[in-house]
Amino acid sequence: MMELDPLLLSRIQFAFVVSFHAIFPVFTIGLASYIALLEGLLYRTGNPAYEQLSRFWTKVFAVVFGMGVVSGIVMSFQFGTNWSVFSYASANFLGPILAYEVVTAFFLEAVFLGVLLFGRDKVPRGTHLFAACMVALGTFISSFWILSANSWMQTPAGAELRDGIVHLTSWSEAIFNPSFVPRFFHVALASFLTGGFVVAGVSAWYLLKGKAPEASRKALQMCLIMLAIAAPAQLLVGDVHGLNTFKHQPAKVAAMEGVWETTDGAPLLLFAIPSQSQERNFLEIGIPNMASLILTHEWNGTVPGLKEWAPEDRPHMPIVFWSFRVMVGIGLLMIVIALWGAWLTWRDRLVESKRFLRLTSLMIPLPFVAVLAGWFVTEVGRQPWLAYGLIRTAEGLTPSLTGAMALFTLVGYVTVYAVVFIAGISFLVRIIRQGPDQTDLSEDHPGAHAKRPFSAADDKTMA
Amino acid sequence: MELIDLTLIWIVIIGFGVFMYVFMDGFDLGVGILFPFAGSDEHRDVMMNSVAPVWDGNETWLILGGAGLLAAFPLIYAVFLPALYIGVFLMLAGLIFRGVAFEFRFKAEPHKRRRWDIAFFGGSLVAAFAQGAVVGAYIQGFEVEGFSYVGGAFDWLTPFTVMTGLGLVAGYTLLGATWLIMKTEGDLQTLAYRIAGRMVLAVLFVFLLVSLWTAVAHPHILERWLEHAAVLWIFPTLSLLAGVWLWRGLGRRAEGTPFIATLALFLLAYLGLLISMWPYAVPPHHTFWDAASSPDAQLFTLIGLLFVIPIILAYTAWTYWVFRGKVRIGEGYH
Question: Whose CA is closest to A412, among B96, B165, B158?
Fold first, then answer.
């Protein structure tokens, strides 16, 4: 009979639930800033195109934000149900940090989201702009705390383990732990890239379809200018983040680079099939010495191989290796598209270039793939530790959890999320199909609007 | 000797947060449970619209409770959640379905609305029952070794917890019905009066049953009751008075009194529970002080919460003020 492993099932469940959750905030963080920018431009210029754009993207924001909230509730219970030993051990740090995330982000969102969604005609223009800025700020404060907590699990600092319990020695060292700053900027830029490519892709699609041409051209140009700066900047920030990981979690970098033996002048592998059990790669194709050059800034610098660590202390190389290549590959593609688009904008040939518009609209799903791949690199690369070097993943598991219980909830969450996700996406597609110059949903139930985020998406006064 | 007992402050904060959640999400879950009893689709629209602007904020107290427990009483977090593993999943699934039903019901094509009606009702019912079972499981106690739960997956599901689960369903239904009395008029209000009347009897009956059952099954609680009988007699007496107040309010067709009286009933039951269990956070062995996190973690979080909670309360009050008054057919919030 097959043995159900509660540890493996819990890891799959956590990966599923957190991945599902992560795609929403990474989009809303970027989009909130974009809406705030549109509101600012509207306030200064009074140009109705900005209002049209802001109204439209606020509708999209409302739906995505709602799905993020729903999946976020589940997150706050996952730590306790499946990882109770870890929760209890790390509560002195993670408890306060997560509590701060709830109170600071909730406070800003609760107060200002309603005003942003429903208050356009009810509050002065300046107040509405202020609300948009506060919602954007709230998303950043929220990611500040969450990324601090995550970074602490990657590079624990300012704390010591006494009788298996984490006790803080310095709050500032713990919050601003060694990997926090590069990770924060890396994720913030990823949010801008995600929001930017979605807005650019949808606008490009509208231009192809001839929908709201004036506003769409404006939106596309704004995005491309931002992306032409943010996409190359992400390469630099990613490099800094990688060097930081090389310093603090070299095993993760060994897995990212596909290095088994400690090597002087390690090649940058473009392709390989790593085998965890045989401790070697198949079909390697690489650029000589490049990995050493990137990581150590020396032609013959030393890159420690994964074999430096005992087999039970190694992350799973194939997942980390390939996730990393997916992320970097999409990142490079983004740079090409963004620079090409900026050049077209500069030469004023944006609208004529059908090929560019088509390619840009096809880019919409890719930033999400890149973000998830990036999280897979850093989270799978942290294994087998929950808090790196302090608490192992296997030690953190809830002792009373059986395989059957874990399987039951895993299937349950997948089912519940599938229903919610399909309904939400179909609703989102409907909004985007209608476009910025359409009015309300024809099949909508008359007079039955509730004052809630999703409802803003079909509020007649907003369309 | 510490000058201030941080743990005690945190008991008050978490106790307040949990009560806010139970009371506020209680009435909107109750409205969900009452959904199938409405006579028409228009009535269901009104019922949903009466809670639509506020349910989201109500539920945030649950998240605050979860994060607050992890920060201040990690042992409660790390024992309750594993012990109630299946129940927690059912509650979350219920809350998700009823949460999205608010949105999708109004978006769905007419022939698909039924399924979101069912999701709203079923989600509310399951969440309410699961929360009631948590109360029962707390009274029952947990099998703990060291700082970990070591019992089985269904220890929380006993005849006693089924009783408390059904009890809370009845309680939330009463809250929901008295809320509707306040917020609606006409046929729907008449229906709400009728259901509220029945629920008063059901709730008082469950109170009595749970109390007797607790006394029989948990002698140490009975011992404590008898020991402090000189003070504790006030709880059943006041509960009975609140019940009578509620009953008479319903009888003379008062609109606000029934809801307030139900609130008083809930508060009395809640305080009675805490006093009966005091000072145990994870019965039968661990007190709130055993369950506490380190003082500096409690202090660090407290500073932020003391600043933010008044603002949250002010905003909440403002929202309720904006959406005060009756909800009518065909009238939504724009």
Answer: B96
